[in-house]
Protein: Protein-L-isoaspartate O-methyltransferase
Amino acid sequence: MKKTIEEHAARFDEHSGSYDEDQDSAEYRACASLVVEHAAPEPDDTVLDLGTGTGAIALALAGDATRVVGRDISDGMMDEARSKATEAGIENVAFGEGSFREPGVDESVDVVVSNFAMHHLDDGEKHEAIEAIAALGPRKFVLGDVMFFGEPDPDEPFYSPDVDDPATVGTLADALTDAGFSLTAVERVHDQVGVLVAERADGSAAADE
Ligand SMILES: C[S@@+](CC[C@H](N)C(=O)[O-])C[C@H]1O[C@@H](n2cnc3c(N)ncnc32)[C@H](O)[C@@H]1O
Structure:
């Protein structure tokens, strides 16, 4: 059954304290590494991490960018992210409330990333989220997530139909190209996990057009 945004937030609040230690699968680590690798921000870039959670991607990219902005719907997850930033002495990261469809970002963004989060939206919502991301004008969007390369299989890891609503790679590719991106890389980590790299077709940020 489809969960509301409030139900997702409450679920992640509840598990925020143990979230990091629970992410022990090789596929999660591989997906996160590929997102960081493909994001490859320039030193003067601002990066937006949507569904930032406890900040795994945001904190990994902080040393490579001028500024990283993390957005999430779960205060509990972002409290963990803030503690980790403080502990590591990272000062160019800011975490705040925002959703995929309403990121609540009013600054210029060069690169958008997201890891293991967008699959909580249904396909129509993902389409709207990708349109909202394109409207922020990044030159690149790197999406690591649960996605189907073959037939969906709830008996295989990463897909629990009670809380997840992943899309096929084809549906995501269509949404990205509809929003004006070109798909420049597809990385299959598992039959139900992958990373898509989408770049502005003209190679420049929409805000510059
Ligand atoms: C599995 S965690 C992934 C966290 C992090 N990106 C990582 O790689 O570890 C999913 C995160 O997505 C967030 N989330 C779920 N639905 C969301 C939405 N509609 N907008 C923004 N964040 C959302 C959850 O609160 C949670 O922190």
